[in-house]
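Researcher: Please predict.
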Amino acid sequence: MKKITIAVIGAGCRGMYAYTPYLLENPNVGEVIAIAEPIKEKRELFKTMYNISNKNTFDTWEDLLSKEKIADALIIANNDGSHFEPAKLALEKGYHVLLEKPMSNNLDKIIKLGELAKKYNNQIFMVCHVLRYTPFFNKLKEIIDSKELGELVSIQHNENIGYWHFAHSYTRGNWRNSNETSPLILSKSCHDLDILLWLTGSKCKYISSFGNLTHMREDNFKEDMAYQCVNCLNEKECPYSSIKIYLEDDKIVRSLNAVHHNPTKENLQKAIIDGPYGRCVYKCDNNVVDHMVSILEFENKVTATFNLSAFTENCTRTIKLMFTHGEIGGNHIKNIIDIHKFSDDFHTVIHPIVNKSGHGGGDYALIKDFISLVASNNKEMTTSATQSIESHIMAFAAEYSRLNYKVVNVDNFYQDAKNNKKISR
């Protein structure tokens, strides 16, 4: 296979640390040759890390895409609301595209991206639904398709966000306010809706959802609290303390780069004194739900419940699959699959092999596959943009259901959106 070249838009956690490190470890298959990033410190760090030339270092994606095509492929990993325009222009210029999820935070633009995927079907256009690439979910899919436990009947799937992760990303962080970014079920959980589609092997027919922002809101701010954790008398008792999360807890190491591009202890201490990541969780401008449950029925009559919650210790996904002749329980991060066939008296426990971390091995496997597809010009994509719009439509339908207390016919919802009827945000 030929060695490919890649340009990157966005030097955040995903653009700099999730996908491109694969190319540092495997320089024979490809090279990162360009970066577009508006924050100077991140741009310079990325430039140094990947040895980017000055001529291929850009302040904005507009600057990068104003040039003639300079690479084989483009990774788009900037803010959710800025995905559509660079993806559209990149496809028009002939780039192969790897787009971070969600595809967009705008329903109309998601539909248009699906149409562009069909129009430019001679190019690789993939979305980063990395769960399809994990050994854990691949093993579940293998068991389902084998029929060794009979027919799949129902799924219970849980997105355990983790109290500390929710405080970081969805209360203090970039995805805290749906008016500026996305509803939580889109920004965090289009992954999960996509994996339900994949496991069931069927389209979702109906969805109904309920949820609220219950705890991390101003109503729960007390008189002896402070706007910044460093000044709060209750800080030592508060599990959401920025001091605990960023200076004392090792759970969130990978996300520290969001707090400061050079996350030394000294820099983090300065950042939480008056920065956004040092704010009291009860005094932020957040509005996304902290718990939500969705009930789904698929066209093949499989039913599912999907429960997302901020109030869990661990950041993981747990799942239970119920079949006509058995059941499976699983924990994604612990990498445990417990299989019980009703005709047997024992359980079989499997630990799928994960060679690389990052979404249980999914990040590494996805970028490896993307590069291979681009190099070989193979169009058999596991997470094509054409497929991915389904989970995004489901997310918007779920949010519409939550806000309006309605059972939503997903296909009708999609058709209404295509016909420009006002149904979403």
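Model: The mean pLDDT is 93.
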